[in-house]
UniProtKB/TrEMBL annotation, chain A:
Listed name of the protein: Multicomponent Na+:H+ antiporter subunit D
Keywords: Cell membrane, Membrane, Transmembrane, Transmembrane helix
Transmembrane segments: 41-60, 67-88, 108-131, 143-162, 168-186, 198-222, 242-261, 273-296, 316-340, 347-366, 378-397, 418-439, 451-471
Keyword Iron appears in the UniProt entry: no
Its membrane topology: Multi-pass membrane protein
One GO CC term on file: plasma membrane
Organism name: Roseospirillum parvum
Main location: membrane
Localization (cell): Cell membrane; Membrane
Start and end residues of each NADH:quinone oxidoreductase/Mrp antiporter transmembrane domain: 165-465
Keyword Magnesium in record: no
UniProt similarity note: Belongs to the CPA3 antiporters (TC 2.A.63) subunit D family.
Top-rank lineage group of the source organism: Bacteria
From TrEMBL, chain B:
Membrane-spanning ranges: 14-31, 43-60, 80-104
Topology of this chain in the membrane: Multi-pass membrane protein
Organism: Roseospirillum parvum
Protein name: Multicomponent Na+:H+ antiporter subunit C
Subcellular location, principal: membrane
Chain coiled-coil ranges: none
PANTHER family on file: ANTIPORTER SUBUNIT MNHC2-RELATED
One Pfam match: Oxidored_q2
Cleaved signal peptide residues: none
KW Thylakoid (keyword) present: no
Keyword terms: Cell membrane, Membrane, Transmembrane, Transmembrane helix
Localization terms from the record: Cell membrane
Family the UniProt entry places it in: Belongs to the CPA3 antiporters (TC 2.A.63) subunit C family.
GO cellular component assignments: plasma membrane
Length: 533, 128
């Protein structure tokens, strides 16, 4: 209770003191050893895309709007790259927003895991924006192009914010920024089904976000804090109360809904299938991953790690086992569904649900090896699915459809695009020499180390299912005859192929030399398992 | 259990009963109703219940409005949940506006806002 009063006092005092406080802060920052810009890098990662969004919306000419958006995207990538370098060099960064120190003020807290996620999200955002120019010109009416870029930047802001923030309510605000903009982006798809897909995602996404708010409300009720690091010290004393256990349940369900963990994935296939190509590629590579990140953050940083996962619940089931069962069920069911899809975007969407299963399987194994494997799969799958959806986007650019029939003959007519598609497809299966192999191998080893033969068997079996659905698209592209009398199809323009090949080569590069991402994932795992912040 | 303890249990946690009632009502409306506008209304009721959960949590027995006064020894209600909910209300308004805008577009594109009719139209397209 005393904490509550302190908050009230701090709020009341702060109004008068804030002016002097910020002045002092600025004076500190200007000391020669530390540069003002360098000190405020964490804020810049959010401020750059957030401020660019309304400016982009004001640009009437699509080309101008695109230039500014792409510039903002690249700047954000540079900022997050700088943050990652700093974190790897000198440990976690704690940044008090507006000079208000935690636990009352909002903190940005960047450790290895969040810095890695920031670079991943900003990198995918920047490449999506570079790719967007040609794709948006084809799929979005010119009058709406600047609004489209503005929404992309807002969505990027929200996703980055979820990774950077150390305040649980602030995470909710960023979650809603990214969600609201993604509902609108999905609704911009070219068929009317985009509206119903966006509407269904809006309903389910809002239920998920509201569950999250209920969860943090219950936590606040018991601890009087919203700061993750502070919660980590306050929660253990309250762990046996029903209120905190209910909070965990609400948070888990809400975040699983946003992460599309089976069976809460029903919004995903239509949302990905009917959204504009760039939006599908961007969201598939980032949105569910960031939700998984927040889930991992709560399980390990706030609720103290593996203890929560291995705790025996009703029927002798631990939370970790439950996650593993749901994850594996998701992998099997979604992979089987993917095989029967006739639309490439929808097929890949079901495959995304399956891959989310692999990531959470790693978390559910509750071992350091499993968690590392899950985290590295977040990175690897983001690259793979991004490349696949960019390639499908290039086919849609030419043919106007992602249907299997539209893929027919694409191997001959769009050799570069389809070659990149094959590389990413092989990664998705997990062929050695590609990124997919690295994470599946680590996951398999983690399962074998715990002597979970059934889990290991299912990982191998579902990889075979991936062979079937990837082959289905490759067969259509290379072995079906070029349709007679159809529209003339040539290679996609260079502005689409370059970003695509950049990502496809990254799939091979990180497959051959995985030391960078694996090192980050292992450091992140160590930090997470040490508990606390 | 006597009537007194039962009514005592109800009254002591009166705010939570109201919150749970509203929460379940809202969620039920979202799931059960086929009309898209009614779904949005259900979503609003669901969100409002959470606003009430937060606001009632900030109340302290005998606490007054959290406006700093010269007089010492006063108890104030906790303003932080109220401030948080101001943000959540803004989010709720934005969600409702976006949801209704999508309903308008769905009505234009499909000619109906009944979920079952929309699904029938979409299945009809798939079969062709």
């Amino acid at each position: 209770m005393s904490q509550l009063l302190k908050v009230a006092e701090a709020a009341a005092h702060g109004v008068t003191e804030s002016a002097t406080h910020t002045a002092q802060h600025a004076a500190h920052a200007a000391t020669p050893s530390l540069s003002l810009l360098g000190d405020n890098l964490p804020a810049l990662a959010i401020v750059v895309p957030l401020l660019a969004a309304p400016l982009v919306a004001l640009m009437i000419r699509p080309a101008l709007a695109w230039s500014l958006a792409a510039l903002a995207g690249l700047t954000t990538l540079a900022v997050t790259g700088g943050l990652l370098a700093r974190v790897l060099d000198s440990g976690p960064i704690v940044y008090a927003v507006g000079g208000w120190a935690g636990p009352w003020g909002i903190e940005y807290r960047i450790d290895t895991l969040s810095a890695g996620m920031l670079v991943l999200v900003a990198g995918i955002g920047a490449v999506s924006l570079l790719y967007a120019r040609a794709s948006v010109a084809r799929e979005i009416p010119p009058a709406r192009a600047s609004l489209f870029y503005s929404l992309m930047l807002l969505c990027l802001t929200g996703l980055l914010g979820m990774c950077i923030s150390g305040d649980v309510f602030n995470v909710f605000v960023f979650l809603e920024i990214s969600s609201l903009s993604s509902y609108a982006l999905i609704g911009l798809g070219s068929t009317r089904r985009a509206f119903t897909a966006a509407f269904n995602y809006l309903i389910l996404g809002t239920i998920g976000a509201t569950f999250y708010v209920i969860g943090i409300g219950l936590l606040y009720m018991m601890t009087g804090s919203l700061n993750m690091a502070d919660l980590a010290t306050l929660v253990p004393a309250q762990m046996d109360t029903t209120t905190v256990q209910m909070a965990i349940a609400f948070l888990a369900v809400g975040l699983s809904l946003k992460a599309a963990l089976f069976p809460l994935h029903l919004w995903l296939p239509n949302a990905y299938a009917y959204a504009p190509s760039v939006v599908t590629a961007f969201l598939a590579a980032t949105a569910t991953k960031v939700s998984i990140y927040v889930l991992v953050r709560f399980v390990f940083t706030v609720f103290g790690g593996t203890g929560l996962l291995v705790l025996e619940g009703p029927l002798g089931l631990s939370a970790g086992t439950l996650i593993c069962v749901l994850a594996l069920a998701g992998v099997v069911v979604a992979s089987l569904s993917a095989i029967y899809q006739e639309d490439a975007k929808r097929l890949l969407a079901y495959s995304s649900v399956a891959q989310v299963g692999y990531m959470l399987l790693g978390v559910g194994l509750a071992s350091p090896a499993g968690l590392s494997a899950g985290l590295i799969h977040v990175f690897n799958h983001a690259l793979i699915k991004f490349a696949l959806f960019l390639a499908v986007g290039a086919v849609v650019w030419r043919t106007g459809s992602a249907h299997m029939a539209a893929l027919a003959g694409a191997g001959k007519r769009m050799p570069w695009t389809m070659a990149a598609f094959v590389i990413a497809g092989l990664s998705l299966i997990g062929v050695p020499g590609t990124v997919g192999f690295v994470s599946k191998w680590m996951l398999l080893q983690a399962a074998l180390a715990q002597q979970l033969w059934l889990v290991a068997g299912l990982i191998l079996f579902t990889s075979l299912l991936a062979v079937v659905y990837v082959w289905k698209m490759i067969e259509a592209a290379y072995f079906r005859p070029v349709p007679e009398g159809g529209p003339e199809i040539a290679e996609a323009p260079l502005s689409l192929r370059l970003p695509l090949w950049l990502v496809a080569l990254a799939c091979i590069y990180f497959g051959l030399d995985a030391s960078g991402p694996v090192g980050i994932a292992e450091t992140a795992t160590r930090t997470l398992l040490e508990g606390g912040a | 259990m006597s009537i007194e303890t039962l009514s005592g249990a109800l009254l002591a946690h009166g705010n939570y009963w109201i919150v749970i009632g509203l929460m379940m009502t809202g969620l039920y409306v979202v799931i059960d109703r086929g009309n898209l506008v009614k779904k949005i209304i259900g979503l609003n009721i669901f969100q409002t219940s959470v606003f009430m959960l937060y606001i009632s949590m900030g109340k302290i027995d005998g606490g007054t409005a959290p406006i700093l006064d010269q007089a010492l020894g006063r108890t104030y209600s906790n303003p932080l949940p109220h401030v948080l909910i101001l943000t959540a209300i803004v989010v709720g308004v934005a969600t409702t506006a976006l949801g209704l805008a999508l309903v308008v577009r769905i009505k234009e594109a499909y000619g109906t806002i009944e979920e079952d009719e929309i699904l029938a139209i979409e299945h009809g397209e798939d079969d062709r």
